[in-house]
Specification:
This protein is of the alpha/beta class. The protein is 43% helix and 12% strand. Strand 5 and strand 6 (191-195) form a beta hairpin.
């Protein structure tokens, strides 16, 4: 494994790419050095080479696909997906950070030199982090829905949500907690997703997976409880 793998600086320092996406992109670049721009590498191989979990690799792939840095052709039947890197030069310009950190530092130093004033270097302690309430809420908004029917205008949104969740979650996790998730409503500001079960169940999903739901939906998400759907799970905290 001699040599090196290059990554455009705009992509490397972009605020729009997470650390997982940058590592996954470097791995994909390594495996597409055949000149075609196509990668046939298994996700498990990528995870092994990059020292990431399979979940982290999937998360990176979803983000790169959303930003149109890569295109994924899903093959199925146990065969690896065909991942094509788009024009990385164009992608780097599209998602680059407007001003580089070092350039910002240099500008501050020039301003200080020009104004020729002393700086009071008092160390101000950072504000305390916001308190995270680890107690699950006592109650959730309840939506009474038909057990097997989603309104037509929400069907495609719900299908995309389930496809994205299946891509990034372990099959057992998806099947247990998310296979019966329903899109209750959507507008410009919020996506409301309903889950069967009790308040404790919905509270656990909101606490553990709200960030993921927001990421795959690409908008604010509210978790609610479905009154018309019952899954018969026991009222104990999920493991």
């Amino acid at each position: 494994m001699k040599g090196f793998t290059k990554l455009d600086n705009n992509l490397l320092f972009s605020n729009k790419l997470s650390q997982y996406s940058k590592l996954v992109l470097m791995g994909l670049t390594y495996f597409t050095r055949n000149g075609t721009g196509k990668c046939f590498c298994l996700k498990t191989t990528l995870a092994s080479y990059l020292n990431l979990s399979l979940y982290q690799v999937r998360l990176g792939l979803v983000e790169l696909e959303d930003l149109e840095v890569i295109n994924i052709q899903r093959v199925g039947q146990g065969n690896p997906d065909i991942i094509t890197l788009t024009d990385l030069t164009a992608s780097s310009q599209q998602i680059s950070t407007p001003i580089h950190y070092r350039e910002e530092e240099k500008k501050e130093e020039e301003d200080i030199s020009k104004n020729n004033f002393d700086i009071d270097v008092k160390t101000t302690p950072p504000p305390p982090p916001p308190h995270k309430n680890t107690d699950f809420p006592n109650s959730f908004d309840v939506y009474d829905v038909e057990p097997t029917k989603t309104p037509n205008h929400l069907t495609q949104v719900e299908e995309r949500l389930h496809t994205s969740l299946e891509d990034v979650l372990r099959p057992s996790t998806y099947q247990t907690w998310f296979s019966e998730a329903r899109v209750v409503s959507i507008d410009d500001d919020k996506l409301i997703i309903g889950f069967p079960g009790n308040d404790l169940m919905c509270g656990w999903i909101e606490d553990k997976y709200l960030t993921l739901l927001t990421k795959v939906s690409n908008q604010s998400v509210q978790v609610v409880k479905l009154k018309g759907v019952s899954d018969g799970r026991k009222e104990t905290e999920p493991g």
